[in-house]
Amino acid sequence: MAKNKESRPSYAVSVVGLSGTEKEKGNCGVGKSCLCNRYVHPSADCYYSEHTSVLSTIDFGGRVVNNDHFLYWGEVFHRGDDGLECRIQVIEQTEFIDDQTFLPHRSTNLQPYTKRAANTKLQSAEKLMYICTDQLGLEQDFDQKQMPDGKLNIDGFVLCIDISKGCNRKFDDQMKFVHSLYSQISKAKKPIVIAAMKCDECVDQYLREVQTFVAGKKNLVLVETSARSSVNVDLCFNALTQQMDKTRGKPKVISYLEANKAQRHLVASVSDKFEKLIVQTVRDYHTSWKIVSNKLKSHPDYDEYINLEGTKKARNTFSKHIEQLRQEHIKRRRQDYLTSLPKILNKLLNNLEEIETMSWTEAQNLIKSRPEFQYCFIELEQTPWHETDHIDKTDDRRVPFDILKTMEGERIYQNHVQHLKSEKRRLEMKEKFKKTLERVHFISAGQPWEEVMCFVMEDESYKYITESDRRDVYSRHQQEIVERAKEEFQEMLFEHAELFYDLDLNATPSYDKMSEIHAVLNEEPRYRALQKLATDRESLLLKHIGFVYHPTKETCLSGTACVDLKVEQVLANRLVQLDHGRSNIYYNSANIDKVNLCLVGREGLAQELANEIRAQSTDDEYTLDGKIYELELLPVDVNSGMLLNHSWISTFKPHGFFCVFSSIESLNYIGDRVSRIRAEIAQSRRDRYTQPVPFILILANQRDSVCKNMPILRHQGQQLANKLQCTFIDIPSGTFPRKFNESQIKQALRAVLEGFKHNFDMMSPMPSIKDLSETDLRIVMCAMCGDPFSVDLILSPFLDSHCCSAGQPGQSNTLILDKIIGDSRRRLQVTVLSYHSSIGIRKDELVHGYILVYSAKRKSSMAMLRAFLAEVQDVIPVQMVAITDSQADFFENEAIKELMTEGEHIATEITAKFTALYSLSQYHRQTEVFTPFFNEVLEKKSNIESFFMFDNSRDGTGTSEDVFPQSPHRHSPAYQYYPDSEDDGEGPPPYSPIGDDVQLLPNPSERKYKIDLEGNEYPAHSTPVGDHERNHKVPPPVKPKPALLPKPNVKKLDPNLLRTIEAGMRSSRWVRSPTMVHGDDLEASDNYAEPVDALLKSKGFGDDIYAIPEDAHSRSGKIRNSFGGLALHGDEENGFDTMSKSQSGRRPSKYKHRSKILFSKTKAYHRRVHSDVSDDEGGAATQKKKKGRGNRGSEEDPLLSPVDPWKGGIDNPAITSDPEQDDKKIKKKKAPKIKEPKKPKSTKTTKPLYPPTRRNWESNYFGVPLQNLVTLERPIPLFIEKCIEYIERTGLTAEGLYRVSGNKTDQDNIQKQFDQDHSLDLFVMDVAVNAVAGALKAFFADLPDPLIPYSLHPELVEAAKIVDYYERLQVLKEIVRKFPPINYEVFKYVITHLNRVSQHSKTTLMTADNLSICFWPTLMRPDFDNKDTLSTTKLNQSVIETFIQQCQHFFYGGDITEPSSAEGTPPPHGHGLESLLALQLPPPLQPQQIQHPLPPEPLI
């Protein structure tokens, strides 16, 4: 032993063992070199398994061997378990063989190996450390370390004995050598350790012999080692070190088996860490080992693995991982290809007849011949595809064609063919089932499927198709029935035209009028056919009433079949507009050649649209419908501040705006900017005739990926277009590679050009009498919308004439005839209108004659004619025209004969002309057919004009100079012009529901904002009311508000009209005094208080211009004038007699008084209604009802209350007026009420429900209280946990989860087995997920008390009625905290589960709404025998739905999840409100300032 300067002990160890020639040691050594290598250089990369002893003379003489028969392996610094350090220098005694003579090399020491190995003093000058065989001769390439001082003193020996089998050596010979060697080295008195070598290939017998040898020696230690496995190598030298230094602790010598087990465990642990490190680091199979190794060099897991296993194994592990990544990538690509293959086959091979008999090879050839082949498949030069670079082309979604040649490809094709066959069969069965339903004649509109299914269950088609298909077919069948019933209902309403057309425009139906309507219609089968769809029926009725009293062509119930629209189209195509010298208003004319377009979009969409338009243009010239337009485009980003600066508008002068969007965000930006742009345009244009600029809303296509939100975008875009009253351009059907389609651009440009034409017409001022000085006669032809004949037929008598020309600009439905009438040529103005448009001019405009057309095939056409004709003054000549196919119809069809006969009788009674036109005949199409009628009109012209001027002066609506007064719409307050309004850019709704003498809304000066039915605020504008308005029914002319672009097919009902009609239905207080008029002359219009200014000013009336309803302030029904007189009590039709008597000749009346047919039809409804209540009981009931309503107070009827009319709200916007229900309510009110003492609310208890158990076995788990099933450690019953775990792991893709019933036997089996063994594994049972879901629901159904306590049900119901969504959530959150702790935890667990299920609704089709429908009866256990429960069913369901939707908010403190609705706001809760919201009502009109009725002064 030697000590160095650092006082660190140093020991030299000599490793000895069998050495010599191959004859002596065999073909391999005993492993001395491997043992030294592993100890000195433990790293796997530094371990060499081959160390040769056969050397050349040169290598033997090199500095490493240095002509010695021993090797210097270097030194090792060792720290023992006791913390002491030492240095171990290792020497290997061997014998080198000459590679030429195969004899030992000659050296300075010629002793035999046994004596030479026992030397304790070794010396060799400048001897280098040995590393490996490759070092010999290349010493300069390796680390060069010299043996210290050139000499060493050996302190101990390691004697190596090979106990493995092989090496062409006898173990006995080796032991003899070992005995000899041991006897020599033992003489040195140095510690010796026996190393049993190669124990990984151990022969047990050899090991036992070595153990015997060791046991026979004193102080000899045996260590079982394996250098290759690195087992007990360090232990061998440590044991020797302890013997050399007795102060050190004696190490524990363990067997090879134990040491090898520990080593393998260590290697496995290190390998596992390294593999995980590789998996986490390497995600791309293109990564190289060099990059990864450099990246992981400093990582401890990497270093430890390299040290134990080496770089080679690490690289092999890396290569395996790379190959695995590649195979996974190929597998994913293959799966993607196989997944897309059915869709591709469905696209390319969708004709079953074509491929049904084809082989798979023929089908592949057919696929190649398809034009779409190159877009779906790719043919690679090399195959298979996964061995080419195609696997790296992730952007190429085309399928390699060689996949079709695989077994999977053929299987998919066979499945495709089978799918086509089954789909064909399914469609056939669906069609057969549809025909089966058509044979069931008792199916009514609105009848639920459950009531019908029992009648068709035995049908073959019913059994074949699925339940969803059955419901789908029935839904379509029911839709057809409903549409047909609604069409017939609408036709029935038209047939009862006299019932509706007895009031003036802008009037509102009273309660009595609505009762009359319901009483008459209730007798009709077509009315009762919609009994189960009462809400829809009521909506149709209200819509019809709204149109009748406020008609426009835009809201025509016939849609595009409106006569006004068709006439405009025909006249525009066949007549050349005459130039009447009308000056241009804003643009030069509607026929312009240059169009300025402003393109508005977000994030570059506007510029993309501009590029697309330019690409379709030639030198900025765009061809549309055969005409070339020069387009000037200005793309503007929606966030640009330029949009809000009106200076650019006057500079650029845009003709229209194209507003493009592709997302919800861009749509919201567009909606906000359009309103502000309109306000800026209105501010920049002060001209009273400024036209509104059209806005076109365009939806951009999603070309990069399929947009799942496209239906939502389309729906919300249409809603915004309706709100802004602009045109919406949708994406055309089919797929297009670009964002914008050519048809979209053309459609948008047409909309702008149509807007010019419409605005040009709308801005045309009505011609005065001076403008029409050259027009001799004004004729109005009326026709019924939707009649089964072409308007060309009734226009042909005029258009076929050579003397026909277009009317004035702005009168698109007017034509001019130059015709000889009498003795000179006359100019006739013929205006062709629908009946609903003609009503507006029947009283207010000068008309010399009417041509009334009706279809002899349609009862409603005759009814409309009767209703219109009944109110026409009998001084105006009438020509009646019946339309049918041919003269033979009169003799062959009784219905046609009856209608033609009725028309002729009416014409005879009123002395009118009557003729017939036949669509199949060219006869009677000349203008001469109306020549006698024109002669009659010319003869009566002076009388007509005299009466018209007298009638106007009497009504105070005109003077003798204004023979052609303005249309009442132009004087309506709804069309007043507001210079400071924010909404000047928007036109009014199509009609105004507010009469001139009724205030529907509060005074605008008292409220800044109004609220519509949807809860939206809109600005209210006030207009001062002067004395002129106070004293005249029609206000003075004001600037008209610009109208909107025409929107065909707009069928919306105004919200204000709804409120007005509802209030009229609820009220019975507008009753005229029987002393006012005689009953014989009572008309429908007499139900309304009439303005006093309709009476003569000469009678002495003052400023009290409005009559007050008798029950508002006084029962006298008399009106006091400023002179103290009483109101007029005459019985004349118009309330006065003096003026009529002063006129020469007979006072004109209406045609209904000259025709028995017209009069009887008009009065028949009135008599029929009042005869229903002629008996005593009916009269009493009516009086009781009126009395009850009269005592309600002013707050309940905002229409009739003279004080604070805005304080009374609308209780239920869903208007119902069912006479039977009203009678029941009256009888209920008549029943005497017995006062009972009120019970305290706290004493009211809900009777608990114990439903009969569904189990047929005794259970100690199911049907017991919850508290018996839970503990503090497990707050959720084990059965619930198991069921929900199974459902969430296996059932979140099952369609109809919780809705589709599971097998009851399986449900019972699950519960029975769980009863027997609570450790039941549902996954092992392999039951259907629906059975587990049913067992879970059955668990709650069997509980003694529901999970949601009965005591909290009333509070939940009240909370559900709260209108404000966020307030409702807060109240529900407070209620749920009142749950018992056990119930709360289980309820939280279940609702959280249902929330997770709802998140997979795309696959399960189970939304929160559907889940709440399935679960609320289970969780709440209602008593369905109780009527109160039935009335709160929807509320209870909505409560559970809210809990599911807002689960995070209620139980985990999360934010409120915004409900998914089109408006983006929480849905309002109301009972009747839903029926009206379904109509998608437009925003209400701006409120008008209307004078309140003045209170009557006391009578003298």
What does this structure look like?
- This protein has 1500 residues and is of the alpha/beta class.
- The protein is built from 55 helices and 28 strands.
- β9, α5 and β10 form a beta-alpha-beta unit.
- α10 (300-309) crosses α11, α11 (311-348) packs parallel to α15 (407-439) and α20 (511-521) crosses α38.
- The N and C termini lie far apart (147 Å).
Brief account:
The protein has 1500 residues and is an alpha/beta fold. 42% of the residues lie in helices and 10% in strands.
Tell how many strands the DSSP assignment holds: 28
* Cα Rg: 51 Å
Mean pLDDT: 75
Structural class: alpha/beta
The proportion of residues in beta strands is 5-15%
Features:
seven-stranded mixed β-sheet, 55 helices, 1500 residues, alpha/beta, disordered C terminus, single chain
Write the layout of secondary structure elements.
Layout: E1 2-3, E2 9-17, H1 22-25, H2 32-40, E3 54-55, H3 57-61, E4 70-79, E5 85-93, E6 97-98, H4 113-116, E7 121-123, E8 151-153, E9 156-162, H5 171-185, E10 192-197, H6 204-215, E11 221-224, H7 233-244, H8 256-281, H9 289-296, H10 300-309, H11 311-348, H12 352-355, H13 360-369, H14 373-376, E12 377-378, E13 399-400, H15 407-439, H16 449-456, H17 460-464, H18 467-495, H19 497-500, H20 511-521, H21 525-528, H22 534-549, H23 563-574, E14 594-601, H24 605-615, E15 621-624, E16 627-637, H25 647-652, E17 656-661, H26 664-684, E18 695-699, H27 710-724, E19 727-729, H28 742-762, E20 777-783, H29 791-799, E21 804-806, E22 814-821, E23 824-834, H30 835-844, E24 849-855, H31 859-870, E25 878-884, H32 888-892, H33 894-910, E26 913-918, H34 931-939, H35 941-955, H36 968-971, E27 1009-1011, E28 1017-1019, H37 1027-1031, H38 1055-1066, H39 1138-1142, H40 1156-1171, H41 1176-1190, H42 1219-1230, H43 1278-1290, H44 1304-1316, H45 1322-1325, H46 1329-1341, H47 1353-1360, H48 1365-1376, H49 1381-1398, H50 1401-1404, H51 1408-1420, H52 1427-1431, ...
Parallel strand pairs: 2-5, 2-9, 3-6, 9-10, 10-11, 12-13, 14-16, 14-17, 17-18, 18-19, 20-23, 20-24, 24-25, 25-26
Antiparallel strand pairs: 1-2, 4-5, 7-8, 15-16, 21-22, 22-23, 27-28
